[in-house]
């Protein structure tokens, strides 16, 4: 089959031959006839190539960043966070490759062996640069190159938006314009771009193959949702921080929170797929299209995992189902719900079930209000929760609803919809109200001061972070200034940890 990349050359050659034919009209008829035959043959070849290519999904060359001065700023200024994305890419790739190439492997292959490698090695020492995922998932990449290309294209949008928000040279209004420019660029690839219309959870959770992955691999599923929590959550500290120092501190806190989620994976990783509007509400408010695209992206990650993990989908049908899912996630009509309904659904699912907010969080992880593996059902138009398909509620603002796997009564659903959010049970710490100045918050509230001290300790317990801060006078000064509200003993301990080893008294 003629390569698509050769097609423009063929067309160019045709133009050249056609021009030559006109210029040589005085030549013998047999020469003109031979020339026309050649032109016709090339045209037929080009048409055949074009026809066969239309049967393919991806028809153009590899995509790349939109050229801009802000490219790779996040990588340069937030290396400790950026490198985690490279580890996430590896985690997604090895997951799909394993599910496709080892369909009869025991659950422990992913739940123990690969999970341990990811959390104890790859995430601890993540790659310095983005990976070529085809080298990690060669067989899956052959099975569904279209889906891989969709994911890659969306990950570029992810990374370019981090760059914009991390670039201290760009003002707030200019950042808004640049993000919109990136979204417009993303949409130019209609063969790859996820819809910017919200998709209902039916597309992810109520297909014939749905829930297979989370059922067989609950711990690994939680890890993938932890990745997604971090990917959307990291936008929030970049937006709500009012200074460069505040943004740096916010990103470090979000990184520390991610690691906290990994301590007891069956309990502390998300119980529900993180929704951008819940995890990063300021980001979703300013850039709703991007937030919706990322929710759709993360939903399709789950769908691909379910298709590969579900033995009821025959191996010779898995590619077709993945291709079908990609089409549904790209179009603007299938399983679509209003933006207002998407916002309500995000709230009804409960941020406490998704790992909690990514900024201004309490010291302890929130207690989920649903059982592990619960599947909520929502009205596609209003987003209101109508019942539980799987699992039950365990507390929070939905107490009083029918907790079984049957739809709730209309009255109960209406009652639940009346809440502005999922209130935390009295037995667990409340999530702090959003603030923009953590230093001021800590100075006036003892609880916030204690949280700040605990966060400092957690960060400085990491020898890599501690060494970097010790060698950076600006960071040391910032942390010391932020410790003004701490008790003297805490401040003294902090000063000792921040002192470079060579300067410590012997």
What is this entry, summarized?
The chain has 506 residues and is mainly α. 59% of the residues lie in helices and 2% in strands. The protein has 3 domains: 4-54; 73-353, no CATH class; 456-506, no CATH class.
Task: Give a verbal description of the structure.
By secondary structure, the chain is an all-alpha fold. The protein has three domains: 4-54; 73-353, no CATH class; 456-506, no CATH class. 59% of the residues lie in helices and 2% in strands. The chain has 25 helices and two strands. Helix 1 packs antiparallel against helix 2 (29-54), helix 7 (145-166) packs antiparallel against helix 8 and helix 11 (218-233) packs antiparallel against helix 17. The longest helix has 26 residues, at 29-54.
Q: What are the main properties of this structure?
A:
506 residues; mainly alpha; globular
Shape annotation:
globular
Percent helix among the residues?
A: 55-70%
C-alpha-based Rg, rounded: 27 Å
N-to-C span = 74 Å
How many helices in DSSP terms? 25
The ordered string of helix (H) and strand (E) elements is HHHHHHHHHHHHHHHHHHHEEHHHHHH
Largest sheet: 2 strands, antiparallel
User: Care to count the β-strands?
Assistant: 2
Order of strands across the main sheet: 1-2
Which ranges are low-confidence, i.e. pLDDT below 50, for 5 or more consecutive residues? 1-56, 397-448
User: How would you classify the helix and strand content by structural class?
Assistant: mainly alpha
